[in-house]
Design a protein that fits this description.
Elements: H1 3-23, E1 29-41, E2 44-51, H2 55-64, E3 70-76, E4 85-94, E5 104-119
Antiparallel strand pairs: 1-5, 2-4, 3-4, 3-5
Signal peptide: 1-27
Pfam families: PAN_4 (PF14295)
Domain Apple: 29-114
Length: 124
């Protein structure tokens, strides 16, 4: 069996494994999404803070951290500064998960609550 045949067989096997994972039975894949609020904030417990990230980077850090339930991203608008001063706060507890909780008004703030969306077979 030549190397081309081995490569083709390996690719076919990998494809079959991926297709089985995606379509197999009633197994569902979980995807992470965020509900983003502009100029609002919820009470929460911050376990990590980092400065000078972009909004996208802040969201990515929360996406990668298993314990992160929400990210609060604030920034200071200064047209004379070459870079905006930003603060990303990762929270492992948030009042946003309580439907009765009311967000507080905030200035120059994005509040992103992590959601786990299960995708897969929805209807029979």
């Amino acid at each position: 069996m030549g190397s081309f045949a081995i490569s083709a067989a390996a690719a076919a096997t990998a494809s079959l494994i991926v297709m089985t994972m995606l379509t197999g039975g009633h197994a569902a894949l979980a995807r992470t999404a965020f509900e983003k609020l502009t100029d609002f904030d919820y009470r929460g417990t911050t376990y990590y803070s980092v400065r000078n990230l972009s909004l996208y980077e802040c969201q990515g850090w929360c996406r990668e951290e298993a314990e992160c339930q929400a990210a609060a991203f604030s920034f200071v608008v200064n047209p004379l500064a070459p870079m905006q001063d930003t603060l990303c706060q990762l929270q492992n507890e948030t009042a946003a998960s309580n439907p009765a909780a009311q967000p507080q008004r905030a200035v120059n703030m994005y509040y992103m609550t992590k959601l786990q969306i299960r995708s897969g077979k929805l209807f029979d």
